[in-house]
Amino acid sequence: MNSHNCIADDVILGQNVKLSKFINLYGCTVGDGTKIGAFVEIQKNAGVGKNCKISSHTFLCEGVSIEDNVFIGHGVMFINDRYPRATTGDGALQTEADWKVERTVIRKGASIGSGVTILSNVEIGANAIVGAGSVVTRDVPANTIVAGNPARIMRTIDAAVTANTSNEPIPFLDLVTPHIELEQELVAAFRKSLRAAAFVGGSVVEDFEQAFAAFCETDHAIGVSSGTDALRFALTACGIRPGDVVLTVPNTFIATTEAISQAGAFPEFIDINEHTYNMSVAMLEQYLHEQCSRDNAGRLISLRSGRPVTAIVPVHLYGQMADMDSILKLAGQFGLTVIEDACQAHGAAYFSKKHDRWMKAGSMGQAAAFSFYPGKNLGACGEAGAVTTNDPTVAATVKMLRDHGQVKKYYHDAEGYNGRLDSIQAAFLHTKLPHLAQWNQKRHERATDYNRLLQSNDTIVLPYEPSWSRAAYHLYVIRTRNREQMIEHLKAAGIGTGIHYPIPLHLQKAYEAMGYGVGAFPIAERVSREILSLPMFPQLRETQQQRVVQQIMKFSTTIASPQPEQDERSLEATAPNA
Ligand SMILES: Cc1ncc(COP(=O)(O)O)c(C=O)c1O
Fold first, then answer.
1. I need a labelling partner for 164 at 20 to 30 A (CA). Which of 111, 215, 442, 576 fits?
2. Which residues of 180-189 are buried (b: 16+ CB within 10 A; e: fewer)?
3. Per-residue model confidence as pLDDT tens digits over 192-245
4. Is the C-beta atom of 482 inside 6 A of ligand 1?
């Protein structure tokens, strides 16, 4: 029987293209191995890649571009002009010259169900699936399933189950997937803010503040413009004065010490515990007893700088809380204020023997600072931060400081700052907050799996989580003596890593004038040469994690590297809050 196919001379057909019957092709290209069903039309300037399946009755118009390995179901309809009309303004029939073709792209590996209509100027991402009968009006992200009219995201696809993706790069941090998962809610929150013109302050901010205070189990949360401002405002509101000394650790992000300096105070450092990487209580105690004196007024004076020591900022690094009972006890003995840098520790908890209960990060100091920088466990879609406190005076002062020192509009009790939390960011944060506990749980599961899978590797040191800690695993940090080679090995395998942080603050150029030299804080210095942060985020899939582990194991067998040296596990680390 005649196939009744109409294949114009200008069609470029690849090798082994399989054509059914009643097919109409002109001016198009079709890649090797592709199969085309009956009654399909493919117009000029349309392209179909290799190994695709185009099912019967589908219409691929000019401007449609289909990449390799794509499945198109029956009767799929593409539209290539945003305003298709039969006639021109003066009533004449439109010609091709009147047609404004807009491109539509179907990326590699995508599947389009039967009866789908795809409007012009749309991109369907790699491996995405469009449910049968959907009407696609806007771009579909890669690795998502969409359905409906208009098509909406139903869920994401585990890319490991999709062919050809088992070697896909594994990012150190995936910020795209959580935003795809919450796209509709986030867009709705954005739309609500636009429609109410709610951009600064107002109920959107207050609602988030209340919800975040409840999450942290504090009386107050005050939204501000960043974690750095949160720390600066908390220090000032807690009474830290220009010229004071504030004690913190050298292995933190510079924002901790910037905030201390911006509050007019001076940072001095305490070395860290080798196992938890947080402030060493033994070193703090030693500093207070041996490196301070009392002046005539009874103030604690730093022998190093001659300035009064008034506060401690423990940093809950990598999402694990510092030994707060012990730090608070020493602070109480020496009359110091404790302000937590909880910028990496949303949802982390500490078992307080003093209070005989688990306590959340941000609820134990006089005040605490949180950052909502996008990569944090709770991240905004821009810059944001918050101060938490149980002290109403501190809360009121932070509110004043963030808003030009105003107690009410145009009544300024003091000079303040433009440090408010943007309402749109508050709306985004409030949308994400209900997911935080579950995200932290997933981080914890991934950390437990890393620990189990890597425990036999004696060339690396794994993170240490004492029994009194429930870490939020903002970062999963191992130690290795062959760090630079391991980074290169993982990079070659498509695996991202980070170093938090490569140079301790006392050795940074910015703090040269402090006069600390190499060897001033030996533990922080040694650790900074060995630490390596592995991929860690709630959406990290087990298959991805196994690949990370396999590559680390493979690397370790190629080098003869002893485990990084460790001091005897100190009492402080094993039974710290006794
Ligand atoms: C420990 C620590 N403190 C303070 C900050 C500052 O937060 P932000 O970047 O929101 O100003 C960060 C942020 O990275 C941090 O990790």
1. 442
2. bbbeeebeeb
3. 999 989 899 889 999 999 999 999 999 999 999 999 999 999 999 999 999 999
4. no
Residue partners of 459: CB distance under 8 A and separation at least 6: 480, 481, 482, 556, 559, 561, 562, 563
| Tens digits of residue pLDDT in 313-361 | 999 999 999 999 999 999 999 999 999 999 999 999 999 999 999 999 9
Length of the chain in terms of residues written: 578
Helix (H, G, I), strand (E, B) or coil at 133: coil
φ, ψ for residue 458, nearest 5 deg: -90, 15
Å from CA of 208 to ligand 1 middle: 20
Are the C-beta atoms of residues 165 and 127 closer than 8 Å to each other? yes
Label residue 161 by pLDDT band (50, 70, 90): low
DSSP 348-409: -EEEETTTTEEEETTSSSSEEEEE--TTSSS--SS--EEEEES-HHHHHHHHHHHBTTEEET
Q: Residue 460: which of 451, 447, 468 has the closest Cα?
A: 451
- Give the span between the Cα atoms of 284 and 77, in whole angstroms: 70
523-541 residue pLDDT tens:
999 999 999 999 999 999 9
Query: Domains of the chain (ranges plus CATH)?
Result: 6-163 (2.160.10.10), 225-398 (3.40.640.10), 436-565 (3.90.1150.10)
Choose the residue to mutate in 252, 339, 371, 387 for probing ligand 1, maximizing ligand atoms within 8 Å of C-beta.
Answer: 371
**577 residue type, one letter:** N
User: Which residue's alpha carbon is nearest to atom 12 within ligand 1?
Assistant: 343
Q: Give the per-residue pLDDT at 159.
A: 56
pLDDT 10s digits, 443-465:
999 999 999 999 999 999 999 99
